[in-house]
Each structure stands twice: as structure tokens, then as C-alpha cells.
Amino acid sequence: MRFLTLGLMSFITAGAFAQSVGVKDIPAGEDTTIKIEKGNKSENTYEITTSTEAVEGEPAPLLKEARANWKTACKEWKKDVKDLNKDNQIISMSCGSMKCSTTAMETTCTSEGKSKIKVKVK
User: Fold this and answer.
1) What share of residues in the chain are helix, strand, coil (percent, to 5)?
2) For residue range 85-115, what is the model confidence (pLDDT) as tens digits?
3) pLDDT given for residue 65 in this prediction
4) Cβ partners under 8 Å of residue 17, min gap 6
5) What are phi and psi of 119, to 5 degrees?
6) What is the mean pLDDT of the chain?
7) What integer is the mean pLDDT of 4-8?
8) Which of 6, 11, 66, 116 could anchor a disulfide with 107, C-beta 3.0 to 4.6 Å?
9) Does residue 41 belong to any structural domain of this protein?
10) Is residue 100 part of a domain?
11) How much is the pLDDT for 41?
12) Does residue 86 form part of some domain?
């Protein structure tokens, strides 16, 4: 019985030592706080920015061509936004609704592109 109790106590004590942390070179004469956190925490802070920009296709004599030019301009705008924000995260991006107008026998389609981006501040 005595050996069983002794063995059990040494097992419990060994478990307690496995969770202890050695702290060296910290003066104990002053008030000291030691904080231990589990996991990998990042101290980066982020800010969400919203921007708008005009998306305009090349003028064309026919409405169908003007719409195709606007779609090309929309793709280029999205590519430019992605290229400028490689380190940041794009939350949303939209070219908006296309509006076409004809002036001097040429049709131009335009819209207002909106983007929402998560930018690292620190």
C-alpha cells in the first residue's frame, strides 16, 4: 500500500513539473507580471477602405462594340486594383452598372467602380 501511494504521488508530481515554466533573469524585487498566451497572435491591425473610380470603355460607333469596350475596361480596372493590392486583401470589387451615351456618332459606356479593401495599418 505504501509503495502504491508513493508511486501515485511521484506520478502526480511529475505531471505538475511538465506544465511548469522556468523564468530566469527577471528581478523578483519589483512587481512583475508574467503573461503566457497560447497560440500565434499577430499584432497587425487592419483598416477597411472603400474607394470609387470611373470605369470608361473606348468610344465605338456601334452600341455592341461600346459595351464590349466597357467590359474590357472593367477587366483592366479589376486587374489594376488586384496588382496594386498584393499584400492587402480585397473584400469586394464591382464595376457597377453600365450606362451608355451617344455623342457625335460614337457611343461610350461608363460606370462607377467600387472596391472595398482590407489594408494593413501596422
Assistant:
1) 30, 30, 35
2) 877 788 889 999 999 999 989 999 999 999 9
3) 96
4) none
5) -110, 135
6) 80
7) 53
8) 66
9) no
10) yes
11) 65
12) yes
10 has pLDDT over 70: no
Kindly state the cell numbers that stand for 121: 495599418
Q: Give the Cα separation of 77 and 83 in Å (integer).
A: 10
Across-strand partners of 106?
103
Domain count, the chain: 1
Tell me the residue range of the domain where 114 lies: 52-120
Which among 89, 82, 91, 84 has a CA at the least distance from the CA of 116?
Answer: 91
Q: How far lies 44's CA from each of 28, 49, 60, 87, 120, in Å?
A: 32, 16, 47, 13, 7
Contact, 66 vs 109, CB < 8 A? yes
* 3 state SS of 34: coil
Burial class (CB in 10 A: 0-12, 13-18, 19+), 57: buried
Q: Rg of the Cα trace of the chain?
A: 32
